[in-house]
Write a structure and sequence with these properties.
By secondary structure, the protein is of the alpha+beta class. The chain contains eight helices and nine strands.
Length: 246
């Protein structure tokens, strides 16, 4: 009940999406056309907003560029120790990107009782790179190094957490919610984006009239087996990303 009180709008939107959009009893196509040859990744850059420019203008200048089947946008962000972490540094590895807000109740549920409990540690042991990204802007809920460090301790997160205060990386990927998951394959191609699973509130419960599906686990299993990702996207739920321009 606390989750629905704190994030009423997100929950009201998320539940019907999963009832009608992600009913696991409906057949899902298991074959896909071969993924296209990697193209040059778009650099994550955005010109500073002009003084007096509206938030809508700023968002337009940093419109999402990430698309399934195409090269993921390249970026470099600092971790909680101030060290640069670049996506290009993980060439040849599968990379999971988790949009993170330590104060979001959906993130709390996912990391304490839902699909993200031990998920990073489990997949990192299999050679997967797992990066959490905090795009909350200055003064926004969950912003900054200190709150991210606190969240890492509370959730026992072994993976790097990267700070994206200006939101350029989040906008480039089209991250909308926390948690919002993206998977980049060994060739640098974006092959999945959506929620971690199809539970209605991040607590790992089966959706009404359906079967619980962990999309991230399933996508990583497909990649490990050398298969195309069978479910490359799904409706995302959670708190809105608290961008600086929102």
């Amino acid at each position: 009940m606390m989750l629905r009180t704190l994030c009423t709008t997100a929950t009201l939107i998320a539940i019907p999406l999963f009832v009608f959009g992600c009913d696991a009893k409906k057949p899902v196509a298991q074959t896909q056309a071969p993924q296209p040859t990697p193209v040059a990744a778009a650099a994550v850059t955005a010109a500073p907003a002009k003084v007096g420019a509206s938030a809508a203008s700023a968002k337009s200048a940093a419109a999402p560029v990430a698309k399934l089947g195409e090269a993921a946008p390249q970026f470099t962000l600092k971790d909680l120790d101030g060290k640069d972490v670049a996506l290009s540094g993980f060439k040849g590895k599968v990379v999971v990107l988790e949009w993170f807000n330590p104060n979001c109740p959906f993130v709390n549920a996912a990391h304490t009782q839902g699909p993200l409990v031990n998920a990073a540690a489990r997949h990192m042991n299999e050679g997967v790179v797992w990066l959490s990204i905090n795009s909350s802007g200055p003064g926004k809920e969950g912003n900054g190094v200190d709150k991210s460090r606190d969240g890492a301790a509370r959730f026992n997160m072994p993976n790097p957490i990267l700070i994206d205060e200006d939101g350029k990386v989040g906008h480039a990927f089209g991250a909308e919610r926390t948690p919002h998951m993206f998977i980049v394959n060994k060739e640098g191609i974006l092959v999945y984006h959506g929620p971690a699973d199809n539970s209605p509130d991040g607590e790992g419960r089966s959706p009404i009239g359906g079967k619980l599906v962990n999309y991230v686990d399933a996508a990583l299993a497909d990649l490990a087996a050398g298969h195309p990702v069978a479910i490359p996207e799904a409706p995302v739920y959670g708190c809105h990303v608290h961008y600086s321009d929102s």
